[in-house]
Amino acid sequence: xxxxxxxxxxxxxxxxxxxxxxxxxxxxxxxxxxxxxxxxxxxxxxxxxxxxxxxxxxxxxxxxxxxxxxxxxxxxxxxxxxxxxxxxxxxxxxxxxxxxxxxxxxxxxxxxxxxxxxxxxxxxxxxxxxxxxxxxxxxxxxxxxxxxxxxxxxxxxxxxxxxxxxxxxxxxxxxxxxxxxxxxxxxxxxxxxxxxxxxxxxxxxxxxxxxxxxxxxxxxxxxxxxxxxxxxxxxxxxxxxxxxxxxxxxxxxxxxxx
Length: 258
Known about the structure:
single chain; Alpha/beta knot; 2 domains; 7-stranded parallel beta sheet; 5-stranded mixed beta sheet
C-alpha cells in the first residue's frame, strides 16, 4: 500500500455509513452511486477505463493482492484511498465472507445506440439478469431495457454475475412502459410452445427481443405488440428453459443470422 491512504478504524465513520446505505436500492438511486466488492470486476473495469469514485481495502487484502492493488493505485485518477479494518468491512459487506476490497462508482447516464435491443420483462432473479447481461455483451447486443418488474441492476448479486458487463452495456429502465409503447423496432416475443422455430427464423437487421420472467414468460399484454414469436425447439422431456439459458441461445443465433 502506498502512503496516500486515509485510515478508517471505526464502522461509525461517515464513509462506512455511506457504504452501508448503498445496500439500499432507494439510497443508490438517490445518490446515483453503487458499490462493487469484487477485485476482478474492479480490476477489469479500470483496465477498460471505468474508474471508481472511492476505494476501500483492508490490510490483509493489500498483503495478499499487492500486485493488482498497485495497478489500481497507479491507474486510477483517485488521489485518496481508504484503509479499513476488518470489523468495518464486515459491517457493510453483503458477502458471507467479505472480500476486503470495495469500490464506489457513479451510475452511468446511459442512452441506447442504434443497434438491436433486448427488453426484459419480470426477470427477478439476480443471477439470471447478470448472466443475460454477460451474454448480451458476448454476442454484441449493446442495448438492454428493463421494465419496472425486473430486479435492480445494481443489486450486488446481479453485479457479481454480470462482472464488468455492468459498465459496458447501455442499460435503461422502462418504468412506465412508455419506451416499449413507442418502440419503432420490430418486436419479437419468445414462447416455449408456439411461434416460429428459431432455426427457421429470419430477423430484421435491427429489432427488439422481449424476454419474460423465469416462471411465467413474457406478459401477454407485451406479447400482443410482437410482430412475431420465436420458439426454441426443445425435448419433450422438459417443459422450458431457464430464461438466462434461453436468452443466450437466442442472442447467439440471432447474431449469427444477422
